[in-house]
Specification:
The chain is an alpha+beta fold and 238 residues long. 44% of the residues lie in helices and 9% in strands. Strand 1 and strand 2 form a beta hairpin. The longest helix has 20 residues. The chain starts with a strand and ends with a strand.
Length: 238
Amino acid sequence: MARSKTPGLMRRNGSIWHYDILVEGIRYRGTTHTADLKTATLFLSQLRLDIARGRLALKDTRRVLLLEEVHQEFLAAKTASASPLYITSATAHWRVWIAPRMGKIPVDKIDAALVDLLRNALLEAGRSPVFTNNVLISLRTLLNFAVKRGRLRKAIKVELLRVQRKPRPTVPASRVHEFLTAIDNATKNPHVRVMVRVMLGLHHPLRHERSEHLGDYPGSLQPTMPRQGRRALSLAEG
């Protein structure tokens, strides 16, 4: 196979120049019907211009993959780099929920109606909105992966359910003394007792403080806050 200095032009066991180009994720292949390189180059330039202007709709020569084939490509690409827990979860979502309903469907035929059917099946089976969204996210990840691999021009928007956040528990001002007494009775560490009072004074949210929130060195405690802003607050000994 001979290639020219012009990207996308080649000769296949003959004198005629053929083109093989990729435009917006779609591959186009064909013949220029000429053995003259200059003419073939002009042909290819005009072809690119026509495609860009939308005047030419060439047939996409790629075979559209089934969603199950996209899933296989996804596992082959991600298993080595993703965490085992993520792969196990994504595979379970696929095997139980997605594959039986969409596995044999071409990836470009998956539409909003199929997504609605999947969402409804999860809810009718008694799955929580959070779990339902996790399955939908697994589907969305596959569709986005297909786009990145050039298997799909554009992925449909997978709508997630709205999940109402649980209200943060609060301690009424009238029961602060009772709260502090319960803290004192629950721990023998005097540093924890002091730190809880410091956090209350700073209006820091106290949410499910557990033993793992204790700092890495004696006399410290890590309050609940976003990971990027988490810090250990030290207590003076003595």
